[in-house]
Design brief:
This protein has 483 residues and is an alpha/beta fold. It has 17 helices and 14 strands.
C-alpha cells in the first residue's frame, strides 16, 4: 500500500528511489506563485474539514529529493527549514527508503506494538543501535515517547515523582495520598512547580504550555499552573565586542532563577524542576554561554531542583555535535535530556534516580514507535559513516560568516547573526521586513523559517553542503537588494 501510494501521478515506486536519489535537483525552480493554484484548491478543500490557516503550501513528498522540497504545483524549493527542523538526512534518502521497505519491519508497522506493555522482540537491540548509540555522555537510560511536548511533559513528571519519593523518605504513598489525588487535593496532589524562562518553548500540552513563554497565541485562553518564569540572557552581538554586557546578562538571569526558586519555596510551592533550551529556538534563537549553563546546573544542584535540558530542536546534530549541551563542558550530565524532531522519535535520557519506582508512572499506549527507531538506527549509521557532524560544523562556520557579511552590507536590514553549527539565525530590523524577506526568498525557491519577533532561522539538513549554501546566499542577496 505504501509503495502504491507513491506511484500516483506516474512517480516511480519507493523501491526505485535509491537509484534516483543522485538526481537531486541542481537548484530551485519556481513556476507559479506560492502557494500555487493546486495548493490553494487543496487548502480550500481542507478548510471544509479542519482549520487550514497555518498551511503554507501542499508538498509532493514522492517527488522531493535530498535538500529539495517539491510542491504540488511543481515548484522546487531548496529547503532550509526542513519540516520545522525535524528531518536529518533530507527527502527520500535511499537508505531510509530501504529501511522502510525492509519486509522484517512490516509487521511492526502494521500491528503497531504498544511498546510499554507488549514490545517487539528486537526492541532492546534496536534501542542500543539507535538511541543508546548516541546517548549524551553519562546518560545510559532512555524512555521513548511520541513527540517533543510529551517528552518534556514526562520528563517533568519524572522530576516530580522523584521529588515526592524523596519527600516521603522512600516510603510508598499513604492511603490519604491515594484518596486525595483523586480529588486533585493535597497531599496526593502536591503544590510543585517547574521553572522556565521568558522566551522559552517546550510544547503545547497543558503542562508544557505553562512552561512555554514565546508567543501569546500559544497560551491564550488556556488555564495554566502557578509556575515561575525567570529571565533568560539576551546577548548583544558580536560577542567579542559585548563581553561585559553579556556577562551581566548571565548574572541577572542566574539571580532571577535563584530569586524565583526561593520565592516559590517560601509560599510552600517548591520548584521540582527547571527546564531550559540550549538555544531558545521558537522564542527567537537566544543563546547563552557554557559558563552560564554550568552555573545554572550548579544552582539547580544547590537547590535540589532537577536540571532538564530540552534538546527537542537542537538535538540530533545541527549544532555540529549530537547534543548542543556537549559544548558546555558540564562537570556532570544533566538530570534529563529530552529529544524529538531530528531524532525521529520523542523521548528523554535520564539519570538512574529518575527511573520510576512503580509501573505506569511514565506511560501511554504507544510509548514511541518502533518504525521510527528502525529509521533512526539507519540515520545514526549514515551520520557516522559519512562524517556528517564534521560537515555540519564546517558548513555552519561558513553559514555564520556569510550571515555576518550580509549584515555588514545591509546594516539597515540585518543584525545579530548568531549560531552553532548550521543552527543559525539573523535578526531583521522589524517583523514586517523579516516576513517580506522570507516570502521573497520563497519566490526565489529558498524556503526559510521565522522565529521570535523579527528573526530568520536557518535549519538545514545534516546533508546541506557548500553548494546548497551558495544557492541560498544568492537568493538572499537578490532579495536584500530589492529592499
Amino acid at each position: 500500500m505504501l509503495a502504491r501510494r507513491f506511484l500516483a501521478g506516474g512517480v516511480r515506486p519507493l523501491s526505485q528511489l535509491a537509484a534516483t536519489y543522485k538526481d537531486e535537483p541542481a537548484g530551485p525552480s519556481v513556476v507559479t506563485k506560492v502557494p500555487g493554484p493546486k495548493s490553494q484548491q487543496l487548502k480550500q478543500s481542507l478548510e471544509s474539514i479542519q482549520s487550514s490557516g497555518q498551511v503554507k503550501f501542499f508538498a509532493d513528498y514522492a517527488k522531493s529529493r535530498g535538500n529539495y522540497l517539491v510542491d504540488v504545483d511543481g515548484n522546487v524549493f531548496l529547503d532550509v527549514y526542513t519540516q520545522i527542523s525535524s528531518l536529518p538526512l533530507g527527502y527520500n534518502h535511499p537508505e531510509l527508503v530501504d529501511a522502510a521497505l525492509n519486509p522484517e519491519h512490516v509487521s511492526a508497522m502494521v500491528s503497531r506494538p504498544s511498546l510499554g506493555s507488549f514490545p517487539t522482540a528486537d526492541l532492546v537491540e534496536t534501542l542500543n543501535n539507535s538511541l543508546i548509540a548516541v546517548a549524551p555522555k553519562g546518560l545510559g537510560l532512555v524512555q521513548t515517547l511520541m513527540c517533543g511536548a510529551c517528552s518534556n511533559e514526562n520528563a517533568i513528571k519524572s522530576a516530580m515523582v522523584r521529588h515526592m519519593f524523596d519527600k516521603r523518605g522512600g516510603k510508598p504513598p499513604t492511603a490519604e495520598d491515594l484518596a486525595s489525588c483523586m480529588e486533585n487535593k493535597e497531599p496526593g496532589t502536591p503544590n510543585l512547580a517547574v521553572l522556565s524562562f521568558d522566551g522559552s518553548f517546550h510544547g503545547r500540552s497543558f503542562g508544557t504550555l505553562t512552561c512555554t513563554r514565546s508567543k501569546p497565541m500559544h497560551k491564550l485562553d488556556f488555564p495554566a499552573f502557578d509556575w515561575p518564569m525567570a529571565k533568560f540572557p539576551r546577548y548583544k552581538y558580536p560577542l567579542n565586542k559585548n563581553v561585559d554586557y553579556n556577562a551581566q546578562q548571565d548574572k541577572q538571569s542566574l539571580q532571577s532563577v535563584r530569586e524565583k526558586i526561593d520565592e516559590w519555596a517560601a509560599k510552600s510551592h517548591p520548584v521540582a524542576a527547571l527546564i531550559v533550551e540550549p538555544v531558545q529556538a521558537e522564542g527567537g534563537d537566544h543563546h547563552a554561554s557554557g559558563d552560564y549553563f554550568r552555573k545554572l546546573q550548579a544552582l539547580c544542584k544547590e537547590k535540589n531542583v532537577a536540571f532538564i535540558v530540552d534538546e527537542v530542536q537542537t538535538g540530533g546534530g545541527p549544532s555540529g555535535a549530537w547534543w548542543a549541551h556537549e559544548a558546555w563542558n558540564l562537570p556532570e550530565p544533566p538530570d534529563m535530556v529530552t529529544f524529538a524532531k531530528k531524532m525521529l522519535t520523542g523521548g528523554f535520557y535520564f539519570k538512574p534516580q529518575y527511573k520510576p519506582d512503580q509501573p505506569y508512572r511514565i506511560f501511554n499506549t504507544w510509548m514511541g514507535d518502533p518504525s521510527k527507531l528502525v529509521l533512526l538506527e539507519t540515520v545514526v549509521d549514515v551520520v557516522k559513516r559519512d562524517h556528517l557532524l564534521r560537515s555540519v560544523a564546517s558548513v555552519g562556520e561558513k553559514l555564520l560568516k556569510g550571515l555576518e557579511a550580509l549584515q555588514d552590507r545591509y546594516p539597515a536590514l540585518l543584525n545579530s547573526a548568531r549560531g552553532i553549527g548550521t543552527f543559525c539565525s539573523i535578526s531583521c530590523c522589524d517583523a514586517k521586513t523579516r516576513d517580506a524577506i522570507i516570502e521573497k526568498c520563497l519566490a526565489q525557491g529558498v524556503h526559510l523559517g521565522a522565529c521570535g519577533e523579527a528573526a530568520i532561522r536557518f535549519r538545514p539538513f545534516l546533508t546541506f553542503t557548500e553548494k546548497h549554501l551558495a544557492i541560498m546566499f544568492n537568493a538572499l542577496e537578490t532579495v536584500l537588494k530589492t529592499l
